[in-house]
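wait is this the right file?? whatever heres the structure
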């Protein structure tokens, strides 16, 4: 049985994506994708690599995702799907590259500094 794998990363989330020939079934952490992600925005975002390459109904997608929140996880899944599609066919690379799906979004949360309220936020200064 053919299986194509891609690892996606975004913020502090890591997604393991498996594409198998099928009918378009999409599961995330053993749940239906619509059950796992409540917002339609995430569902649209994750489907974009498949839409751009016109492979929407060709694969059953199984995803295991850990870490971060829903936005990071959705971004990681999108990245993983794109990388798995490249493993399926190298001819899809230019299309996915042009759409920006193969580029790992390197933005991370800036750490909180000691003696401060947050990464950039300071405690209010009182002169008197």
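ok assuming it is, sequence goes like this
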């Amino acid at each position: 049985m053919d299986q194509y794998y891609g690892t996606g990363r975004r913020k502090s989330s890591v997604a393991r994506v498996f594409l198998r020939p099928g009918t378009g079934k999409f599961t995330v952490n053993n749940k239906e994708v619509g059950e796992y992600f409540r917002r339609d925005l995430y569902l649209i975002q994750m489907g974009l690599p498949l839409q751009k390459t016109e492979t929407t109904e060709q694969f059953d997608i199984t995803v295991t995702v850990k870490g971060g929140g829903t936005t990071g996880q959705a971004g990681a899944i999108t990245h993983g799907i794109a990388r798995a599609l490249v493993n399926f066919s190298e001819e899809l690379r230019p299309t996915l590259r042009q759409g920006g799906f193969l580029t790992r979004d390197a933005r991370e949360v800036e750490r909180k500094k000691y003696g401060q309220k947050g990464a950039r936020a300071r405690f209010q200064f009182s002169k008197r």
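The chain has one domain: 4-99. so i think its the right one actually
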